[in-house]
Every structure is written in structure tokens, then in C-alpha cells.
Prior knowledge:
- The protein is mostly helical and 405 residues long.
- The protein has helices at residues 13-34, 38-56, 62-83, 89-96, 99-111, 116-129, 137-140, 143-152, 155-165, 178-185, 189-218, 232-250, 267-281, 291-309, 327-337, 344-371, 380-387, 396-404.
- Helix 14 crosses helix 16.
Amino acid sequence: MFHFVKNMPRLSNAENTALNILDYLFFHDVASVSNYSVLKHNFYNELGRVLNIIILGKPLIGRRGQLYRHFLLCGLEIMASSHVQASNEIFAKNLRQTLPITQRLIDQVEKQGFDTAEFNRDLYNLEHYFKIDQLDKSLSYKLVAQFLWWEYDFISLAVFAKFLDLEILTSGRLLVNKNLKAEEFFGDVDAFFDQVFFRAMLLIEFEIIKRQVYLTNNLKTMEFNINLRDSAEKINDQLFFIYATKGVQDLIGKPFKGIAEFKVYSNTVITNYTKDILDRLKHRRLYFDNRPDCLGLMGSLFVSLAKEENLSRPIHKVPVEPDKFSCTNEAQLRLKKYGFSLDARTLNKHYKKFYSTYFIIRDYFNEFSDEQIGLLTPDLIHHFSVTKHTDRPFDPLFEAMFAKW
């Protein structure tokens, strides 16, 4: 059912870490693309416009502006999640326990030299302008991650390009002459990739905080039963989930340098930084077998998007209509925007492997949004770590975990 990691060529620790980070971001890209809607488009357009007005009025430029923008988005997600009515009593209790995560956010705002009173006023104005207490559940769930995709189109692909640029990852499919395509699409391509990388790492840091606060609230009541009649693969997944949960718990309260504290990105700096955040994230990649497959899978997401934009468009060129522009052709153009080149046949091959997973992620994300499995709850992506060796869309094991948590 899923296209998961198989036997992999030997990779360095830095490469493994980078691929795990990319995998985590890729999941969020897929979830955001597959659940995009007219409602979200209109909301994000207006939110982006208002955020621009706030930041230009400071004025804040460069990374300072991006950092303040991120903090406001985090505040909105926290407020939006605290207003919803959760269908599950335990989730409702977690939504009421947002004070620790709010305090963590304010601490970061102050640490970065922003005026906390001014920040609270901006957040208050956003809350009332957008009527956050009435916001649709599909907008409040993972608001920061979904808005980030709307802003930058494809987070994991830009971060992949940055890892290549820093030579943390290497690939035979290196960037096309980026100076030629940069002016057309991004202006300064290096600055664009730096900006996306910065915001993507801020997103991961926010998700880590959410996970830590959730565990602090709930670890004492968690139970996890292993059935020895299950397959060895499934038991191994469950053991990893337990190991990852304990690993996150062990680092709660231990400080680390966030991405905003680094002035210059270098191979050494980012290698050490990504190791620190992966230690706290404890994500084990689900999709990327190796470096070359990264590009194919990312390209397959562009194929899926092209198909949803025009259902009559063929996935791949067919003999009876050789001149018709296909979804794989559209994906090639979008990959070129980021400086990558991949032939249409290879894109079609990866799409065939991945398209069922695309719809499964979409359905899970919809379910979590509808049920408001929101701010301080098990991360959706951990669901896939536990259930990847089952053919049942909603595994009873995971439902039982939710019932107890």
C-alpha cells in the first residue's frame, strides 16, 4: 500500500539526517497539496496580505521579517486550536492546556529581541480581524505548515536544493544552471532557498515544541500494548514508536540553538543543527529510499497536482495523442523552476508508485482536521510510522491508542 524505505545504500550520518528531515517536510507538502481548497486559498491570500502590512509597517526586513511572520502564524495556530470544540474528551482537555506552548512562544519572541507587548497587540488584532474563534477546522489544523506551503509552493524540494548546495547531500541530478532560471522565477535563487530553508526549520522547531508539551501533559497516562502475534515488521514499527516517544521526552527542557541563532549557513553548522532537531523530532523516514529517489518522488507530487488542476489532462503521453501536454510534462516544467531536470518516463514511474499514498495522506489529514485532532495531540505523521505495515487505512491499534490518550 505504501512506498516505504527498503534496503538503502550506505549513507553517512549527515546524509541520513538530511533525508529524514526532507521526508518529514515532504509529508507536510503532500498533506497540504492534497487538501488544498478554495476556502484555504481565499484565507491564505488575505492572511498573507495582512501579515505583509504588519511587517512592512515595523519595518522588518530579511530574516527578521520572516521570523516575526513565523511567530505570528504560530500564535494564530495556538489560538485557533484553543477555540475549537473537539469531539474527543481527551483532545478537548489538551486543547485547554495551551498555556505552556503559548509561554514557549512568548519566550522565543522576547529572546529574539521583539517587543512582546507589540507582538501580543498584533496577534490580538489578527485574532479579531479573522474571527479566529469562528475559523473553520480545516484552516486551524497545522495552520503554520499549510500556510508555509501556500507561501513557497514546495518546501521539501527547496530544502533538498539547499542540502545539495551545502554538499550535505550529493546527487547526479544537480541543479541546472541556476543563474539562468533564478531571475525568471525567484530573482536571487540563493536568497530564495535560504529563506525557504529558514522557514522550514522554524516550522520543525514549532512542531517539536508542540510534541514536547503534548508529552509533558500526557506521558503518565500513555499505554501501549504489543501483540506478539503481529508480524516482526509491525512489532518493529511499534517499538520504534516507543523509542521515539522516550527519546523526545529525554530531551525536554534541554536547550539547543535554533536556526534563528545562526548567521551563516555552512556544511558543518547545518549538519550539527539538523542532528540536534532530528534528535528531538525522532522522525524515521517513510518514503525516501535514497538520494536519487528524492527527486522522483517530489516530482510525482507535481504530477498529482497537475492532474488535480486539470482532470482531463493525461498523466503521461499516450500514443494516440502524442502532442497533448501531459501531467508529467507539467511536472518537468515545475521541477525546472527549482533547477532540476528529470525525464517524463521516470516521473511517470514514480507517480505510479506513489499516487495511492497521496490519497491516503489526503484522507488521513481530512480526518484529523474534521475531528480536530489538533494542537497538542499525537502528530499525524507518527500514525504512519505505526501503521505502515498494515493494509487497513485506520488501524485498530492506533484507534485504541487514541482512546487511551
